[in-house]
Write a structure and sequence with these properties.
Blueprint (H helix, E strand, L loop, with lengths): L6 H15 L10 H4 L2 H12 L10 H18 L10 H12 L5 H6 L1 E7 L13 E7 L15 H12 L8 E5 L5 H9 L4 E6 L2 H13 L8 E5 L22 E5 L8 H14 L4 E7 L3 H13 L2 E5 L21 E8 L2
Parallel strand pairs: 3-4, 3-6, 4-5, 6-7
Antiparallel strand pairs: 1-2, 7-9, 8-9
Helix pairs in contact: 1-3, 4-5, 7-8
């Protein structure tokens, strides 16, 4: 964008782009006085609506809805049509999106699409000038196969933010993620937080089968830095191709997000944590819980107490929605970051 764009205006544009690429339905458009500038419109077209953009775009229905809003704000802000106008590229994109028949909304929700999460708490680096994670997700709450693991949940984003502020917790460590789902946290640890090795485990065959797509999108095709693993809670940790679980290699850190939501699985989850601790004596366990269901969280605390774990809440303030710069998630839900210690 041009040199006339102020830092405050640039922040608005950057935030809007990040919300758009995260497929955020509460996206906040920049002020009309910013959007009516030709260089801003050119930037938005190239980044968000050009078909050859570098980052995969959200579904057409979403792009159409946001582009209609965008053009309406631009029109409302133009006082002199000799001085300002609407980009031909944006109007052409709108025409193309309108002329393309959309899928039924139910089908579109079940389809997987690319969602990009920007990691605003991480500084740019030589390897990652714009730290982000792009994932193929199903935006339906429950996918057609019955799993909830094909979208990234807010507790995972919250735990990711916590780890971004404390990268030493996983740096050069062997990490096991329980209930990996889309692989957001596993990829964060391996790609941006310099974990030595990450096991991305889940008990859903559907999740494990889809995980290679997200590893590929983030540069881990053929890499041995992340290993998908079918791990069903409550089952003994046994080897498959290798004689012993994980080839006898221990783990240093266990992470998990939103893994206590189902009270029926809490006993099995804690049993697996006991098995992991038995195999890796000095392991650190960090989980994030969205307190949507206090009863299941209380059941988790009781199960931990019965099996010899002490649960400590780790203070971590949640940025308000207005202050977030990516990733974006609700500031209305209480989250707990918990550290579990065994036998202390």
């Amino acid at each position: 964008m041009g040199s006339s764009t102020t830092p405050t205006q640039l922040d608005q544009v950057t935030r809007f782009c990040r919300q758009f690429l995260q497929y955020d339905y509460d996206v906040e458009l920049p002020d009309g006085e910013i959007l009516r500038e030709a260089d801003v419109q050119d930037h938005l077209f190239k980044k968000l609506f050009a078909e050859d953009t570098v980052i995969p775009l959200p579904p057409r229905r979403y792009r159409l809805r946001i582009l209609k809003q965008l053009i309406a704000v631009i029109e409302g802000a133009i006082e002199d049509w000799d001085e300002h106008g609407i980009s031909d590229d944006l109007t052409s994109s709108l025409a193309e999106l309108i002329s393309t028949p959309p899928l039924p909304e139910v089908m579109e929700l079940q389809q997987k699409c690319c969602v990009t999460y920007h990691l605003s708490l991480l500084p740019p680096s030589a390897r990652h000038a714009d730290p982000h994670i792009t994932l193929l997700e199903s935006r339906a709450l429950i996918a057609a196969a019955g799993t909830t693991g094909l979208r990234t949940w807010e507790a995972g984003l919250h735990l990711g933010q916590y780890l971004c502020t404390r990268p030493e917790l996983v740096r050069n460590k062997r990490v096991l993620e329980l209930g990996t789902g889309t692989g957001y946290l596993a990829i964060l640890c391996a790609k941006h937080l310099d974990a030595r090795h990450v096991i991305a485990s889940d008990g859903s065959d559907d999740v494990i089968n889809h995980l290679p797509d997200n590893l590929f999108l983030n540069g881990f095709e053929g890499s041995d830095k992340i290993a998908p693993m079918d791990l069903k809670w409550g089952h003994a940790l046994v080897g498959t191709e290798e004689a012993t679980w994980n080839g006898g290699r221990g783990v240093d850190v266990v992470i998990g997000a939103d893994i206590t939501y189902d009270s029926r699985m809490v006993t099995a989850l804690v049993a697996t944590l006991v098995d992991v601790v038995s195999a890796s004596k000095e392991v650190s366990i960090i989980i994030s819980v969205a307190e949507r269901n206090k009863a299941s969280y209380d059941e988790f605390l009781k199960a931990c107490e019965r099996r010899g774990f002490k649960v400590q809440d780790k203070p971590f303030s949640l940025s308000s929605r207005r202050e977030q710069k990516g990733p974006f998630y609700s500031d209305a839900t209480p989250f707990h970051i918990c550290q579990l210690r065994y036998g202390d």
